[in-house]
Amino acid sequence: MSESSKTALITGGSKGIGFGIAQVLIKEGIRVAITSRSKENADQAAAELNKISEGFAIGIESDVRSYESQQKAVQTVLDQWGQLDYFIANAGVGHFAPIEELTPEQWQETIDINLTGVFFSAKASLAALTSTKGYFISIASLAGTNFFENGAAYNASKFGLVGFSQAMMLDVRKAGIRVTTIMPGSVASEFNNHQPSEKDAWKIQPEDIGQIISDLIKLPARTLPSKIEVRPSMPSK
């Protein structure tokens, strides 16, 4: 089956890493659905992506904190294109503060989106990916193995995500599904309300993560890089 008949679903795909991944995959001839909690943002991003290849992108309003919402997102892809080959669990949030200042609401949102949201994504997509012998890719972080000050919530969510994804890999490979965890360091994206600029040229670019995913899905199915750490080649001066 050619890549032009393959489809991908990317959570949090309206900007940042998710949008960069979508750009690369569409250029590879893969149809892409991107999700956002904002229908307007999802539709606007899909319109930009369709400038690369008309009709290759759709936007879906979806919230990873809701299992039902993830089920609907997967069904939308199936209704649109008849199959799901690649699921990229990218949606994430970061709240950074010492324990005495971190609120229960910030803690809960971080865990709900970064960890539980990936579980919901996996559960919702499992049947479709089994059908296509597909690929599930979670976007974690180097914060999933390296703890740091003011990172209690984020570290907990990403440590948990790495553990979940690697255990899932062992569970579902019997069904022919591959699972990879990608753990980026500093990325030039809008994460945590950052506005990328020329000063971010030293960082990993969102499309670089897209290139890694493009390379992964081209590997023979017998081979699985199950966990990939990604760093800028040179740190900021």
TrEMBL record:
<comment type="similarity">
    <text>Belongs to the short-chain dehydrogenases/reductases (SDR) family.</text>
</comment>
<dbReference type="GO" id="GO:0016491">
    <property type="term" value="F:oxidoreductase activity"/>
</dbReference>
<dbReference type="InterPro" id="IPR050259">
    <property type="entry name" value="SDR"/>
</dbReference>
<dbReference type="InterPro" id="IPR020904">
    <property type="entry name" value="Sc_DH/Rdtase_CS"/>
</dbReference>
<keyword id="KW-0560">Oxidoreductase</keyword>
<dbReference type="InterPro" id="IPR036291">
    <property type="entry name" value="NAD(P)-bd_dom_sf"/>
</dbReference>
<dbReference type="InterPro" id="IPR002347">
    <property type="entry name" value="SDR_fam"/>
</dbReference>
<protein>
    <submittedName>
        <fullName>Ketoacyl reductase</fullName>
        <ecNumber>1.3.1.-</ecNumber>
    </submittedName>
</protein>
<dbReference type="Pfam" id="PF00106">
    <property type="entry name" value="adh_short"/>
</dbReference>
